[in-house]
Write a structure and sequence with these properties.
Blueprint (H helix, E strand, L loop, with lengths): L1 H27 L5 H11 L5 H14 L6 H15 L4 E2 L4 E2 H36 L4 H15 L2 H14 L21 H38 L2 H8 L4 H13 L1 H25 L4 H11 L2 H29 L6 H5 L1
Antiparallel strand pairs: 1-2
Helix pairs in contact: 1-13, 2-3, 5-6, 5-8, 5-11, 6-8, 7-8, 7-11, 8-10, 8-11, 9-10, 11-12, 11-13, 12-13
Length: 337
C-alpha cells in the first residue's frame, strides 16, 4: 500500500507541473498587468497626467520584473516555490502571497469540508430512501430535489438569497464572517452562532448542489444492487429487509461514490467560490476575481495552483480508499507489494 501511495504521488508531480505552466500562461495571456492598474489609478484618482502616470507605471514594472518575458517570470516563480517555498509577492496586497493564501484558504477549505460532509450524509440518505421507495411520492419528491440541485446555477441561488435577506429581512452584514461586535472578540458560543448566521447561505447552496449528485448515484447503484443474486440469497436466509439493505446492499453501492470523492473537494470549492463572490466573503473566490481584475498575477496563479493541487490530492485519496476496499484497483507495482 505504501508503494502504491508513492507511485501515485510521483505520477502527480508532473501533472501539477504541467498545470502550473498552463495556469500561468492563461493568466498572462490577456494584455496588461499590475502596472496598468497603477497607471489608471494615478490618472483617475491621483489626478496625474498620462505621461507622469506612465513613467511611474514603467518604473514599477521594471522594479518588480513585470517587464521580463513570461517564461522568465514563470521560471522565477516556480523556482521560488520549489527551492524556498516562496510563492512570490502580492503587488496589490503588498505582502507575500503565502500570507494572502494563508488568510483565505483555511476558511475556504473549512467551508468546503463542511459542505462536503453534509452533502454526502444527506445525499446518501436521500438516495437510500428513494431507492427503497421506488416510484412512490418519496422517490418523486427526492428526485425533484436532486434535479433542482443539479440544474439551478449556484450563483442564481445566491442572488435570490441576497435579495431576500437584504430587501425582505433588512440584513446589512452579509459580506463578512461576523457582526461588527464580534470582529475582534475571542471565540465563544455566541460568536460561533454569529458565524453560522453569516455563512449558512454559502453552506446551504454548496450542500444543495453537492447532495444532488450523491443522491442520484446512490439511488441508481442501490437499485442495481438490490436486484443482485446475493441480495436475494440474503433475503432467502430470513434476514430482515433492513439488514439486507444496510449490511449487504448499501456497502456495495457506495463504491462509485468513493471514486467521486476524487473530484468532490474541487467541486465544493467551486461552489463555495461562486457563492462567496456573490456574498463578498473574504475567502478564495473574491481574492481570485480581485487579483485577476488588477493583474496581481502571482496571487491568481498561486490560488489556481492550490485548487489544482486539491483535485490531485482528492484523486489520490479516492484511489487509496478504493484500494483499501478492493485491491484489484491498485497499480500493478502496488498489487505485488
Amino acid at each position: 500500500m505504501f508503494r502504491f501511495l508513492l507511485v501515485r504521488i510521483a505520477s502527480a508531480i508532473p501533472v501539477l507541473l504541467v498545470l502550473s505552466v498552463v495556469t500561468f500562461a492563461i493568466i498572462q495571456a490577456p494584455p496588461g498587468d499590475y502596472s496598468d492598474y497603477i497607471r489608471s489609478q494615478m490618472i483617475n484618482q491621483g489626478g496625474a497626467s498620462f505621461e507622469e502616470a506612465d513613467a511611474q507605471a514603467q518604473a514599477y514594472k521594471v522594479a518588480n520584473g513585470l517587464d521580463k518575458p513570461m517564461v522568465v517570470q514563470y521560471v522565477n516563480w516556480i523556482t521560488g516555490i520549489v527551492t524556498r517555498g516562496d510563492f512570490g509577492h502580492s503587488l496589490f496586497y503588498n505582502k507575500p502571497v503565502s500570507e494572502v493564501v494563508g488568510e483565505r484558504l483555511p476558511r475556504t477549505l473549512a467551508l468546503a469540508l463542511v459542505c462536503h460532509i453534509l452533502a454526502s450524509i444527506i445525499g446518501i440518505t436521500f438516495g437510500i430512501l428513494a431507492a427503497t421507495r421506488q416510484y412512490t411520492w418519496v422517490d418523486t419528491l427526492l428526485s425533484g430535489i436532486s434535479f433542482l440541485g443539479m440544474t439551478v446555477p449556484r450563483f442564481l441561488m445566491a442572488l435570490i438569497i441576497v435579495y431576500i435577506l437584504v430587501f425582505h429581512f433588512n440584513v446589512t452584514e452579509i459580506n463578512s464572517f461576523h457582526s461588527a461586535k464580534y470582529g475582534g472578540a475571542p471565540w465563544s458560543w455566541d460568536k460561533f452562532v454569529d458565524l453560522l448566521k453569516h455563512v449558512w447561505p454559502v453552506i446551504a447552496i454548496a450542500t444543495f448542489g453537492g447532495l444532488a449528485y450523491n443522491m442520484r448515484v446512490m439511488r441508481g447503484n442501490l437499485l442495481d444492487t438490490l436486484n443482485a443474486q446475493y441480495v436475494e440469497t440474503a433475503r432467502a436466509k430470513g434476514l430482515s429487509e433492513r439488514a439486507v439493505i444496510m449490511r449487504h446492499a448499501v456497502p456495495n453501492a457506495l463504491h462509485p461514490l468513493v471514486m467521486y470523492q476524487g473530484v468532490v473537494l474541487p467541486y465544493m470549492l467551486t461552489g463555495e467560490i461562486e457563492t462567496a463572490i456573490i456574498f463578498a466573503l473574504p475567502t478564495v473566490g473574491p481574492a481570485i476575481v480581485g487579483s485577476m481584475w488588477v493583474g496581481d498575477v502571482y496571487v491568481t496563479a498561486t490560488f489556481m495552483l492550490v485548487l489544482s493541487a486539491t483535485l490531485i490530492v482528492g484523486n489520490i485519496i479516492a484511489d487509496m480508499l478504493l484500494a483499501l476496499l478492493d485491491p484489484r484497483v491498485r497499480l500493478g507495482g502496488g498489487a505485488r507489494a
